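Changelog excerpt

This revision adds worked examples to the README so contributors can see how folded entries look when concatenated. The first example is reproduced verbatim below.
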Amino acid sequence: MNQNKTISKNLKARNDIAFFSLLIPVTLLVSGVLLSIKYEGLLYWVGQLVLSFFFLQTFILLHECAHLSFFKSRSINVVFGHLFGILSFIPYYSWQQMHNLHHRWTGWRDKDPTTESTISPSSSKVKNCIVNIAWKLCIPLFYLSYKLSNYWNLFKIKRFLNPKKYKKVKTQFLVYLAVYAMLFYFFWKYIVQVFIFAFAISLLWKELVIMTQHSHIEIPISNNKEVKPISYLDQVQYTRSFYVNLFFAKYFLFNFNLHEVHHAHPGIPSYKLSDIKLEAHQKPNFFYWLFKAKKMKGVDYIFKSSKHTGEMF
């Protein structure tokens, strides 16, 4: 997944910028923990909100380190990738392998392991009703399903990886579960007091971010025919960016909102993405997307596209 060999010098990863970028997550972590420990009532919940943004950032940073492009050194990317993976409750190696396949097969809905389940909704009216209610009430059902089915589901992962990689995934699952068991055994009171609610809130932020990226976009289906991967630049039409305040996007979202540029140039560090200009309209504004997307039924937003609904973003 490391495309650094083809990247011009001024767009390559730099350790100084990468470590500087971590100042805001560290600040959010420290301030959120202090508020959550020292105060009750309103200030406690302010601390939880601050920590929820920290957990959103760990998810984004897991993504960046898995591309081996956030830091200059591969080993530093791996070390921090595991740290952010533990904090995100997503095993680093399974994320890296499945996300690599996502970049390879973006543009073929049934070939991309992260979108293959979005071809058609469930035939169960009850399930579809639950999906619609969760979408309207901002219950992060989609993110949880995305996370568990793609990065913790050994049956699915086995279909996509060779035996050697699959064995490594299983080994890291056991390591991650052992780490979580140890942390909860020794620190469960502290974890419940300080982190549980913040992590739960962060699930909503994560869902809102990832649901902008490939949902409700017309993406071809191969129907089990022999097809070739679509080039990175041609993948732009099957992705969506969203736009917010530039400072917030760069220092709080690490340019994770610039998903079209990321798919066009997946080997470029996130902090360099804003330097690249694509011939694409800078739309939608995040709140415009949120308003229009939430007006729709969840099953329509996920399983259909503007071709079927007429809703454009």
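The second example, added in the same revision:
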Amino acid sequence: MTSDLRFFKEQLYGNQPQRAGDPRSPFQRDRARIMHSAAFRRLQGKTQVMGAGEGDFHRTRLTHSIEVSQIGYGLLQVLQSKKEILPENDQKWLPERDLIEAACLAHDLGHPPFGHKGEQALHEAMLQHGGFEGNGQTLRIITKLEKYNERGKGLYPTRRLILGILKYPRSIKTFDLDAFSQTPPKSFHEDEADVVAWALDGFSPNDRRQFIASANGKQAHHTLDCSILELADDIAYGIHDIEDIVARGLATESAVRNAITVAFNELASKSLNGFNADLVANGLLADSFQRK
């Protein structure tokens, strides 16, 4: 992989002329364009667990993405401060704050309402036209569909932003869709093959092969930025979905306690630093201040 960090700041379709007096970095422009995009605003109408019109307390995809962004930056701060986790000579590879926040804000842009059920419905409807995959749609939105400067070129994202949201760098065309007629394989849409090739251009041929070969599944190789995003996403929806369910009274106390106990039993062999099922359940089921 290239060691030239400037390489990852290059913009898709060529660097755009910078406005006179604009002090922003390429990653700051990535973040700003995402936050002001129509696709980002549309997340307010997309469900997380409950419908967007069922109240004003629970998360939507928009508020979830904002929370993922904050957690992503928090993880970045931990990596910056703990040299035993990431040695000082490797710190240069850590993303800038604006970049990790941009990737986190963008990560759900392509996901339809109703979660994976919505994705499955769209995939079945589009099966004769190449299928549909939510992560692939996110890539399409920021590189082709969203409006910025010229039709068909999206937000002119940086290479590193694309690598940050590229969870599964394998084309949907390489799968046998007869075997994925109901649930799409984790992939990008074939129309964005040129974008992915450009994003991976700085990697060695062997790295690219391993990257692509691992793409469909939980054990997929990710860039450092994408790994931070994935963890932030898991933390956000894992905790906040539970909070929404408890706060809205959509599960009984016994159901919550049982689910948490089962989860902790599966983690029994791992260090949990003093956390246990009773501690978490008691906190969740207490008043709203204790829950927070």
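Reviewer comment on example two: The mean pLDDT is 88. The CA atoms of residues 144 and 154 lie 4 Å apart.
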